[in-house]
Amino acid sequence: MHEALFKYIKTHSLTPLTESEMEVIKNTFVPNKLRKRQYFLQEGEVCKYMAFIVKGAMRQYSVDDKGVEHIVQLSIENWWVGDRESHTNLTPSIYNIDAWEDTDFLQATKDGFLNRLSSIPAINELFRNLDERYAIATQKRLNAHISLTAEKRYAELAKSYPEFLQRFPQHIIASYLGITKETLSRIRKQMVSK
Amino acid sequence: MHEALFKYIKTHSLTPLTESEMEVIKNTFVPNKLRKRQYFLQEGEVCKYMAFIVKGAMRQYSVDDKGVEHIVQLSIENWWVGDRESHTNLTPSIYNIDAWEDTDFLQATKDGFLNRLSSIPAINELFRNLDERYAIATQKRLNAHISLTAEKRYAELAKSYPEFLQRFPQHIIASYLGITKETLSRIRKQMVSK
DNA sequence: TTTACCTGTTGACATTTATCAACGGAAGTT
DNA sequence: AACTTCCGTTGATAAATGTCAACAGGTAAA
């Protein structure tokens, strides 16, 4: 179960892990699983864990006044899930996170991060790197929203993350793109005829 | 000139700076200034510096096929500017950054960050913290784009960053919100009548 | 097997926002 | 002072996207 995480850390940090560090990681990241549709986090709760997905898929979304879900993040194997804002500030989250497929993951608490993992250089490098990449990716996505049409945003998504289109149904993809499922359906129809 | 930066570091990190660290910072962050409309970074260039604004205002934007500018970031005193993606990966930037007012700032190269500043705990805490806050803020802004109307996004901006509305003209704010200046003008008209 | 739900599509229509053009006032420049 | 540029507003119209309703095929559940 932890093998996937060790492999991930290896590819995303420079410093290798020692045997004892691997032990600490094994004890700090505890395995857990959710069945499809079960919640990892619900709006109003404080996000207790940040988790690494070993197998499966989750989605993070907010719900507006009218009850419509707006997907802010989709995550599959080798992605992290959790609401960083809520997790680091211990504030109630405005997001929901649930399993879209049966999902196996490894979770760690804030306490675990601060008191056990923070002394491991590879972990620090990893999260530093992760925050950076996340900030860059979100910046790009935001720029796409401000400057591109829905059609171009879809094309970009299909190019950047083709596996998403396989794993999630169209209405989920539409929500992720910030459009309705009907609009996405029409955009796709137009695209094939071009 | 460096006083503003020291003060900023003090409020955003736990570890205090030693005298010698302050010396290193003074030597690594070099003062520079731009007149209104001059470029800090142009599309296609690699972003050589990350900069801390001491006085003034800058904007970061991309330009689309039709020559329309799309503002992705506005920055004033005590904000950082630069394209992190380009700066860390040494890739050509897709953004332009220019001064909206005459601006004084302190700039440091990637080399300066890696070889001089990385041994200073306060700086590491600061940037870790900065990346985190940036990632969270961008996430929020993206969520606003996906789930809110233009009117609500404007109201949120007015509440979160009222100083922006004073410092930047409406067509800049409109672009930041991802709408045209005409639409923003009409939204504002509607809002006062409510 | 039957039922219920989930998914994607389509049509008709409403709403939001963009586009284009024009105007007046404010501010900056010569 | 005359001139130019920038800024915000307004009107008319077009384009993009949303909303609501209906339907059909697929899949899961009873």
Structure report:
The structure is a homodimer of 194-residue chains. Chain A is of the alpha+beta class. Chain A has 2 domains: 3-147, Jelly Rolls; 148-194. Chain A has 9 helices and 8 strands. Chain A has helices spanning 3-12, 19-28, 84-89, 110-117, 121-147, 150-160, 162-167, 170-177, 181-192, and strands at 30-34, 39-41, 49-55, 58-63, 69-75, 80-81, 96-99, 103-109. In chain A, the strands form 2 sheets. A 4-stranded antiparallel sheet of chain A has the order 1-8-3-6. Chain A has a 4-stranded antiparallel sheet with strand order 2-7-4-5. In chain A, β4 and β5 (69-75) form a beta hairpin. In chain A, α2 runs antiparallel to α4 (110-117) and α8 (170-177) packs across α9. The first copy, chain A, is globular, with a radius of gyration of 18 Å. Chain A starts with a helix and ends with a helix. The mean pLDDT of chain A is 93. At the A-B interface, β5, α3 and α5 of A face β5, α3 and α5 of B. Chain A binds a DNA duplex (30 and 30 nucleotides) through residues 149-150, 169-171, 179-186, 189.
